[in-house]
Amino acid sequence: MSVTLAGPLADRSAWNTEACSIGKAMEVVGSRTAMLLLREAFYGTTRFDDFAERVGVTDAVAAARLKKLVALGIFAKRPYREPGQRTRHEYLLTQMGRDLFPAVAALMQWGNTYLQHSGGPLALVDRGTGTPVTIDARSESGEALAVEDIAVRINLDWLQREPGGS
Predict the structure, then answer these.
(1) Highest mean pLDDT among 7-16, 114-123, 139-148
(2) 3-state per-residue secondary structure call for the chain
């Protein structure tokens, strides 16, 4: 069971994977710490100390990872000041960061299914109805697709924008 590689991609040895979007995305969010910082942001965490504590990393690790995620545009820093305290920053998801929710939720769903007994400690539900939420592949028309229903093809729009492209 696999996706279909269409057209020139059918010969996997004939194409270069250096521009792979999955590889580029993993360079951004491919660490455990980055994913857990995203989890916490989706759960409402905004303050540095809370991120470090809830993710279970040192301040230095949290600072380095948050700095990178801010530089990449996934988080934005906003100053705040408690009365009598110095100015600090909170970290808020940008639209770019919010768009990672399906990936984070899909990892949670997969972990609940395959790594936890009894479905895992948390479940995603529709806020209004309480019905379970699932993350899956769908066509533009909303039809659920299995892996074997999906083809990967060259994106001609991207190819035309790239230097040396057709």
Answers:
(1) 139-148
(2) CCCEECHHHHCHHHCCCCCCHHHHHHHHHCCHHHHHHHHHHHCCCCEHHHHHHHHCCCHHHHHHHHHHHHHCCCEEEEEECCCCCCCEEEEEECHHHHCCHHHHHHHHHHHHHHCCHHHCCCCCECCCCCCECCCCCECCCCCECCHHHCEECCCHHHHHHCCCCC
